Amino acid sequence: MRKLYPLFLFFLFTFPAISFAEDQPLRLSWNKKILQIHGDSIPGGKIEIWYLEAYCRPGSTDRDWHETVIPHETKLVSSNNDGTQLQLKCTLEDGVELYHIIKSSTDEVAFQVKAHNPTKKKSQAHWAQPCMRVGAFTGYEDPADKYAYIQKSFVFLDDKLAMMPTTPWSTNARYIPGQVWAAPGVDRDDVNPRPLNEKTPSNGLIGCFSKDDSMILAMAWDPYQELFQGVIRCLHSDFRIGGLNPGETKMIHGKVYLLPNNVEGLLERYQNDFPKHE
Predict the structure, then answer these.
(1) Which domain holds residue 219?
(2) What single DSSP character describes residue 176?
(3) Which of 61, 79, 132, 252 has CA atoms 20 to 30 A from the CA of 238?
(4) DSSP state at residue 178
């Protein structure tokens, strides 16, 4: 395996050694745009995340999707021998570079992203989509019913767990079906062109319960642009970039949690990891 590059040393940080799921750390792999999280305790054996599905321009809510997406290329820079750390680099068509450090522990995967604009032009990269596939985890992989998994899925509205389909539930948009919750303070013209819920989420968590209800899978980012229930048995917490001026650098961080079914425990972890969201 390749060794870590000095360019990324500033990313190195320590994660809490709190174990809820299993003694061995989750294992990571990335190939053909898919990040896989492997673990013996995971229903289905692995979680797949399209990492990353898209980088997006603002003004996206009622516009053709192809006009929103900024083409990009992602490369694997390095990985360690035990499969607990990956380094990726994304290069956008406009020249913006994003460096991703992804690290696993026993019950979570942590993401640190450095977004940098080395060009002399302002970048319109406002948000990005890590697309987490949850069909196998929820037990709803039957191709005859693509959306059954939403009955296992949740967000938090009015400071309470809200199972999908939530009340209210929007059904009108340029593209259907799906559901979008714009993050607090985010312009509602700058989100996914799927049905936009009138509610604002209470926090940045989106997740689901396993088929047997023994586990929770959830994702969160800071800052985040939206929460999104998608159309390929997927859930998104899409991270916010907010554009980049020439020479500007921004830091973004995220988590994927794989925990026993304890909503209060999930919230405690989230509040500890994302204190700015309180």
Answers:
(1) 24-277
(2) -
(3) 79
(4) -
